[in-house]
């Protein structure tokens, strides 16, 4: 045995950067972004359709800590003070031009094989046709329209006359926030750094080009990924907040245009900022935590709404805000008892109902919040809206996936992870499937129509942090999606319902599997009714029309590993040195982001053959 | 007890200045609003729960014994383990725990309060002693550049406070007579557990003197005062407990037999052996197998010879799993990797019985029987060829609160079994030869607690996931304890948790508009403010003058502790006042108060030291006597063990012979000869010591001669419980031998 001098038990900071493979590093203080173009086989992704090349590696500068915070010289590893919640970099991508014929050809070429498969009209989403004045499309991603037998999708809160005057201002010039960001002397904002030639760069911006909004630490950057190379690295605008860290943000696809981008941001302090990029003006919502003091984990504009957005607070509430309404101290309007209508008969009192603290139908709509729902006391980590603008998928730290019909404010399904928390969720472009990623290292595929788990996808070596569909490579039966995780890997998956690999034990009875996954007798009847031939393929909207069925809450049991189909990835590669936090698919590229500030743009294969050099 | 309430209370975020002033440690009624108090009211009548689940005691550090403290805490809060330790062979009545055979009281629930004006102490000295704390020998790891105004968040400070507050139990005695067992690690463990149960206080500090004494006496590798490996200790302890319990149960059976034979005369040798043979199967159920039942699982290694395609299976028992780590991976992935297929080729070929000779083969390890308690050892200490020594890996390895195992065999029972994380042993430090261990443990009803030697502190659930390995501070999870649970239990717990959280949130909302960051130990904060107000006046130059002994007294077992006699109102009232914004007057009065308090504490310490000396003398004498006794007992046990071993060997031969038709006895030796297991990704715990030889000696084709000891029983699929004794104990010996190399 060696005898070494007694070393420090609580190390000093110098040792933290010691030779530990760069895992324990002092944060890099870099003031400006760095753009590099590394090439080589490790920067290529080989998939069936060709090779993706790394086009841009943009390292966003992590801002130094706010002067008031001061540097931590000697981190006490055992300090028990809970740290404020942090999130890796998330991106909001915006292409301002309206999309003309977004739908790739192959999708039309894909034959609708089953007769029970409603043929999709290539018509854009309903709201497109509705608002002819609107120059913007409904988003950077094409939507499969839910076969619109039911006509237009109802709008959230449309039955409430108290909401209409504000919600339905169409044709009027877009409203801007009030406060000028640059001139603001708010203590909330530490500094705003617009680019020197901001107006010139904006003029030069190609309408087809990609704007990216990114949060990193206490900074928020607006980037133009389509501008020429040296300038591309530098943000059009950088906002430094004093204490708040933006954890999530979203761009309103409904209101965006050549001179208007509505961004909504949610902060670790619970604050919300509505920011209009072109005018550089902003408004704070939930100021001084008047409505909720809990950090915001996810924030999204309500589909098709100009003003309303939904924020998930970490105390387990979902709150709908109006960007133009004033805040007021909020007291739950309804009685705290659960809405018993959602409890499936036969089971004892349900511990997981949807508490409506304030209904969207409340007549008191003078101020925010518009609606508030408590779904649990566990942290909500992410949520996603269905493309048909009816459903909401919410995942939380306790490993639950909830499907909520938010138009009716009803919880319809409650699923549980194999184990561990769910960290991310997304809907398939046609709204039939939901993807979740979680701390069980799995991506799970859930069928909204059949209300069951479809498959679990092992392949990650650590927790999954983000999942996204690639709408340009999805058709009626085949789906491409990607996932990234703490293992620094990007995984691509091709999912085809018919091609799922069943475990041996389950192969005989896989058609009945839904009945295994739900234990309430009520739900079994329900499942059987869905199991009529072709029922599996019913479209979402027809499901939503069966109102009565939807009202039941089904609590789904966790399905055994031996009973669930698994899906292997088509591509798995370590693409960054740091745990990844975001992935998104654009028409020409795949974008990833890691927790340390690396935004990477992967160009899609140019041609089928001879896709050439890096 | 009350002080703990204070902590818990403030940790629940309800300690606003106004509420903080009313409840005191002597006035538990004032705490009724807190969740903790509410829980106590719901609990079965009586001040304390019988099962010891509401005892939150720190363990004294005797200089680098944190490896022991951290593991002991994890084991104590493993409910089934604690219950078994306490109830085997039978539970001792409380009275006999609290008093010695001579009627002397062992535990003084009401610690002696020193006269506040002890002559030998002056305030100035107290201050010196105070400021000297972080530099004392025990706490050498404190940041060298520790700021003069003492950091109240510093663990060393908190430890001293814990020690000073007491009560303390010095585990210098043993109760082996009551158990009818010779002194062993098991009995000293049982002593500690029972003493905790017997004590009236919820909180305090235990000094595991005896336990360490036995440990060091019987295990050379733990004898030095150096930093030790917590996982090795866990493994040794479990194996010891197995051995001790089995020896005892065999003894019991023998005694029984002898009683029955009674008049037949002396217990002749054959009778003895017969008794052993017949007793073994009987002795197991119910009692002796409990460590196995809790911690043991079965691994199946499937080896497929690539020449003849013959698949051979071999089962091995494990008490914990050691998994290799990858950069940026999860525990799930590590376990998957553990079971990945592995090629046995080149120097590591497999000796195939079918083809006869060394062949290339594919091998994979899967879990066939899932343990109730899954102890996962993350192999953070890896041998690096360049440096010729172990190095710590700071890979980020994430661990979820719940776990299921993917690497089970197809025929495994309950392959979807759910596990929940209930304890984490964290290693802090840059390398394997030094550092510090702490543990974070989930208690049955009080959430997660941080155990850092003497200090116990409630922590947020999210705190548990601070030790993935990538954060500054060099603290990494090292051993993870997962226990069996079900989804229903988990859901129920989550609901309860969320209710509590809601209640807490409500409380916070009403009292503290900004709840963020105030969940820290409010009580400690109070102390901090007191200290920080005083410390600037500390004469720093004198601090090294001859008062080191004062600190030393702290680290010695001190039977006397002083519940701070001062009205705690002041202390608890302080926390919420920010230091910076404190009005001057208040500072002054606080200074005075703090001085007084310090004085008292220091007096307590000093007299503790004096008392200590006397104690030591007395103990020495006792010790000598006791050692003689122990020697005798030990000899007896040894004889018994020898006898049992002899019979065991015979039996093994028999078994092997009987199995001969089905299974070539040679197969058992195939592995070691072929060196098959050398490149196994696994290091099941009892193999752990072999890491040294294995990785160091990669080039040697036959490095595992020691495995011969293990394998004769290892290859049998249906292992009889009595064989464990042989294997584990022999392996343990091997382990310690290896250490000496």
TrEMBL record, chain A:
A GO cellular-component term linked to this record: cell tip
Composition bias type Pro residues, residue spans:
1-10
> WD repeat ranges?
415-456
**Subunit record text:** Interacts with creB.
Alphabetized InterPro entries for the sequence = WD40/YVTN_repeat-like_dom_sf (IPR015943), WD40_repeat_dom_sf (IPR036322), WD40_rpt (IPR001680), WD_repeat_creC_regulators (IPR051362)
Give me the stretches of Basic and acidic residues compositional bias: 122-136
Q: Name one GO biological process term.
A: carbon catabolite repression of transcription
Give the signal peptide range. none
Q: Which Gene3D superfamilies match?
A: YVTN repeat-like/Quinoprotein amine dehydrogenase
Name by which UniProt lists this protein: Catabolite repression protein creC
Region described as Disordered: 1-22, 113-178, 519-550
Query: What keywords is this UniProt entry annotated with?
Result: Repeat, WD repeat
Biological role stated in the UniProt entry = Component of the regulatory network controlling carbon source utilization through ubiquitination and deubiquitination involving creA, creB, creC, creD and acrB. Required to prevent the proteolysis of the CreB deubiquitinating enzyme in the absence of carbon catabolite repression. CreB deubiquitinating enzyme stabilized in a complex with the CreC leads to the expression of genes such as those in the proline and quinate pathways.
Assigned protein family: Belongs to the WD repeat creC family.
Q: Where is the composition biased (Polar residues)?
A: 12-22, 528-545
At the top level, the lineage of the source is Eukaryota
From TrEMBL, chain B:
What is one process in the GO biological process aspect for this record? Answer: proteolysis
Basic residues composition-biased segments: 723-741
Sequence ranges of Low complexity compositional bias: 10-23
Q: What is its EC number?
A: 3.4.19.12
The reaction(s) this protein catalyses: Thiol-dependent hydrolysis of ester, thioester, amide, peptide and isopeptide bonds formed by the C-terminal Gly of ubiquitin (a 76-residue protein attached to proteins as an intracellular targeting signal)
Q: What's an example GO cellular component term for this entry? A: nucleus
Q: Where is this region: Disordered?
A: 1-30, 95-165, 576-622, 641-741
Q: What is the superkingdom listed in this entry's lineage?
A: Eukaryota
Write down the top EC class of this protein. Answer: hydrolase
Task: Give the Basic and acidic residues compositional bias ranges.
Answer: 148-159, 585-622, 641-670, 692-701
A GO molecular function annotation here is: cysteine-type deubiquitinase activity
**Residue ranges with Polar residues bias:** 95-107, 128-138
Query: Which Gene3D superfamilies does the record associate with it?
Result: Cysteine proteinases
Q: Name one Pfam family in it.
A: UCH
What does it do? Ubiquitin thioesterase component of the regulatory network controlling carbon source utilization through ubiquitination and deubiquitination involving creA, creB, creC, creD and acrB. Deubiquitinates the creA catabolic repressor and the quinate permease qutD. Also plays a role in response to carbon starvation and the control of extracellular proteases activity.
Q: What is the annotated quaternary arrangement, including any partners?
A: Interacts with creA, creC and qutD.
State the family named in the UniProt similarity comment for this chain. Answer: Belongs to the peptidase C19 family.
Q: What is the protein name stated in its UniProt record?
A: Ubiquitin carboxyl-terminal hydrolase
**What organism is recorded for this protein?**
Lepraria neglecta
- Which lineage? Eukaryota, Fungi, Dikarya, Ascomycota, Pezizomycotina
């Amino acid at each position: 045995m060696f005898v070494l001098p007694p070393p420090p038990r609580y190390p000093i900071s110098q040792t933290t950067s010691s030779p530990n493979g760069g895992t324990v590093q002092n944060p890099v203080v870099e003031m400006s972004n760095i753009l590099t173009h590394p090439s080589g086989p490790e920067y290529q992704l080989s998939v069936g359709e060709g090779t993706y090349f790394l086009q841009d590696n943009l390292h966003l500068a992590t801002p130094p800590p706010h002067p008031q915070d001061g540097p931590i010289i000697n981190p006490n590893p055992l300090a028990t003070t809970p740290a404020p919640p942090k999130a890796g970099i998330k991106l909001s991508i915006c292409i301002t031009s309206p999309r003309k014929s977004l739908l790739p050809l192959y999708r039309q070429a894909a034959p609708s094989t089953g007769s029970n498969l409603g043929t999709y009209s290539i018509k854009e989403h309903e709201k497109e046709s509705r608002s002819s004045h609107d120059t913007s499309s409904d988003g950077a991603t094409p939507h499969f329209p839910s076969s619109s037998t039911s006509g237009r999708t109802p709008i959230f809160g449309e039955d409430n006359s108290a909401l209409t005057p504000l919600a339905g201002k169409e044709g009027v010039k877009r409203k801007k926030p009030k406060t000028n960001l640059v001139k603001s002397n708010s203590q909330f904002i530490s500094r705003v750094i617009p680019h020197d030639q901001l107006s010139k760069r904006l003029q030069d911006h190609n309408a087809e080009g990609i704007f990216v909004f990114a949060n990193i630490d206490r900074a928020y950057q607006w980037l133009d990924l389509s501008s020429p190379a040296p300038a591309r690295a530098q943000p059009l605008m950088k906002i430094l907040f004093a204490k708040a860290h933006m954890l999530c943000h979203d761009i309103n696809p409904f209101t965006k245009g050549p001179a208007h981008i509505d961004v909504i941001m949610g902060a670790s302090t619970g604050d919300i900022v509505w920011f209009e990029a072109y005018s550089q003006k902003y408004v704070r919502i939930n100021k001084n935590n008047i409505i909720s003091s809990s950090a915001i984990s996810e924030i999204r504009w309500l589909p098709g709404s100009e003003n309303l957005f939904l924020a998930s607070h970490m105390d387990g509430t979902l709150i709908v805000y109006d960007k133009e309404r004033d805040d007021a101290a909020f007291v739950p309007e309804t009685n705290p008892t659960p809405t018993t209508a959602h409890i499936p008969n036969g089971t004892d009192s349900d511990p997981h109902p949807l508490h409506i603290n304030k209904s969207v139908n409340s007549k008191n709509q003078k101020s925010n919040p518009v609606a508030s729902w408590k779904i649990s006391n566990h942290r909500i980590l992410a949520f996603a809206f269905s493309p048909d603008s009816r459903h909401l998928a919410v995942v939380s730290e306790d490993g639950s996936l909830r499907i909520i019909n938010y138009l009716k404010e009803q919880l319809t399904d409650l699923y549980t992870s194999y184990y561990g928390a769910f960290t991310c969720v997304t809907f398939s472009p046609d709204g039939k499937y939901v993807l979740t990623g979680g701390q069980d290292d799995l991506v799970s595929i859930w069928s909204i129509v059949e209300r069951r788990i479809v498959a679990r996808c092992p392949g990650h070596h650590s927790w999954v942090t983000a999942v996204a569909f690639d709408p340009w490579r999805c058709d009626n039966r085949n789906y491409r999606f990607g996932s990234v995780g703490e293992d620094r890997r990007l995984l691509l998956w091709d999912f085809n319902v018919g091609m799922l690999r069943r475990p041996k034990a389950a192969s005989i009875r896989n058609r009945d599997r839904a009945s295994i996954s739900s234990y309430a007798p009520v739900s079994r009847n329900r499942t059987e009714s869905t199991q009529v031939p072709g029922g599996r393929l019913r479209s979402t909207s027809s499901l939503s029309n069966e109102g009565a069925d939807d009202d039941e809450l089904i609590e789904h049991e966790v399905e055994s590993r031996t009973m669930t189909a698994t899906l292997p990835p088509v591509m798995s590669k370590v693409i960054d040195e740091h745990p990844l936090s975001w992935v998104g698919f654009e028409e020409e590229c795949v974008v990833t982001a890691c927790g340390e500030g690396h935004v990477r743009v992967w160009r899609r294969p140019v041609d089928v053959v001879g896709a050439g050099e890096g | 007890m009350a002080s703990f309430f204070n902590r818990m209370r403030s940790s629940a975020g309800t300690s606003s200045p106004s509420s903080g002033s009313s409840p005191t440690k002597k006035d538990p009624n004032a705490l009724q609003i807190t969740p903790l108090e509410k829980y106590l009211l719901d609990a079965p009548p009586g001040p304390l729960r019988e099962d010891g689940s509401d005892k939150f005691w720190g363990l004294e550090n005797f200089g680098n014994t944190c490896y022991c403290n951290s593991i002991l805490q994890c084991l104590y809060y493993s409910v089934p383990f604690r219950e078994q330790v306490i109830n085997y062979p039978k539970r001792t009545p409380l009275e006999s725990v609290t008093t010695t055979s001579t009627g002397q009281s062992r535990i003084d629930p009401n610690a002696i309060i020193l006269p506040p004006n002890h002559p030998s102490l002056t305030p100035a000295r107290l201050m010196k002693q105070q400021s000297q704390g972080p530099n004392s020998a025990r706490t050498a790891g404190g940041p060298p550049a520790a700021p003069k105004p003492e950091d109240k968040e510093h663990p060393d400070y908190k430890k001293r406070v814990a020690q000073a507050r007491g009560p303390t139990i010095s585990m210098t005695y043993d109760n082996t007579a009551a158990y009818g067992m010779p002194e062993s690690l098991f009995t000293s463990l049982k002593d500690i557990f029972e003493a905790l149960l017997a004590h009236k206080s919820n909180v305090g500090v235990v000094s595991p003197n005896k336990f360490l004494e036995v440990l060091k006496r019987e295990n050379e590798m733990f004898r030095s005062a150096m930093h030790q490996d917590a996982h090795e200790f866990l493994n040794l302890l479990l194996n010891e407990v197995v051995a001790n319990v089995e020896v005892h149960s065999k003894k019991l059976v023998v005694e029984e037999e002898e009683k029955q034979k009674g008049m037949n005369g002396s217990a002749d040798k054959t009778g003895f052996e017969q008794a052993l043979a017949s007793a073994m199967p009987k002795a197991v159920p119910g009692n002796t197998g409990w460590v196995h039942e809790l911690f043991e699982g079965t691994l199946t290694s499937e080896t497929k010879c690539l020449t003849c395609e013959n698949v051979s299976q071999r089962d091995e028992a494990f008490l914990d799993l050691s998994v290799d780590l990858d950069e940026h991976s999860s525990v799930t992935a590590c376990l998957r990797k553990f079971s990945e297929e592995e090629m046995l080729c080149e120097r590591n070929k497999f000796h195939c019985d079918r083809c006869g000779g060394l062949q290339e083969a594919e091998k994979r390890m899967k879990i066939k029987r899932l343990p109730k308690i899954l102890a996962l050892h993350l192999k953070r200490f890896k041998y690096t060829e360049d440096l010729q020594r172990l190095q710590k890996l700071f890979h980020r390895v994430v661990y979820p609160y719940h776990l299921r195992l993917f690497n089970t065999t197809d025929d495994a029972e309950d392959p979807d079994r759910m596990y929940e994380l209930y304890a984490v042993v964290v290693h802090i430090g840059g390398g394997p030869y030094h550092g510090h261990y702490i543990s974070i443990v989930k208690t049955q009803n009080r959430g997660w607690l941080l155990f850092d030697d003497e200090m116990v502190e409630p922590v947020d659930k999210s705190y548990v996931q601070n030790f993935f390995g990538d954060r500054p501070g060099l603290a990494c999870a090292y051993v993870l304890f997962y226990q069996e649970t079900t989804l229903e239990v988990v859901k129920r717990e989550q609901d309860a948790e969320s209710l509590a959280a809601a209640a807490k949130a409500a409380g916070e909302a009403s009292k503290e508009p900004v709840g963020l960051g105030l969940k820290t130990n409010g009580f400690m904060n109070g102390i901090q403010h007191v200290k920080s107000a005083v410390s600037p006046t500390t004469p720093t130059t004198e601090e090294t003058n001859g008062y080191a002994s004062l600190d030393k007294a702290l680290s010695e077992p001190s039977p006397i502790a002083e519940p701070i006699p001062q009205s705690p109102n002041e202390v608890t009232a302080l926390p919420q006042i920010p230091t910076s914004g404190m009005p001057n007057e208040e500072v002054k009065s606080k200074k005075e108060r703090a001085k007084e308090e310090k004085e008292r504490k220091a007096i307590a310490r000093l007299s503790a030291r004096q008392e200590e000396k006397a104690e030591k003398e007395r103990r020495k004498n006792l010790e000598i006597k006791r050692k003689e006794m122990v020697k005798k007992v030990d000899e007896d046990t040894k004889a018994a063990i020898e006898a049992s071993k002899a019979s065991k060997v015979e039996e093994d031969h028999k078994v092997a012979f009987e199995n001969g038709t089905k299974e070539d006895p040679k197969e058992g030796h195939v592995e070691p000869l072929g060196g098959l297991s050398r490149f196994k990704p696994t290091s099941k715990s009892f193999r752990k010591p072999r890491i040294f030889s294995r990785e160091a000696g990669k080039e040697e084709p036959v490095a595992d001669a020691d495995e011969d000891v293990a394998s004769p029983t290892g290859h049998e699929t249906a292992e009889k419980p009595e064989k464990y004794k042989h294997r584990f104990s022999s392996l343990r010996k091997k382990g310690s031998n290896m250490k000496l190399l």
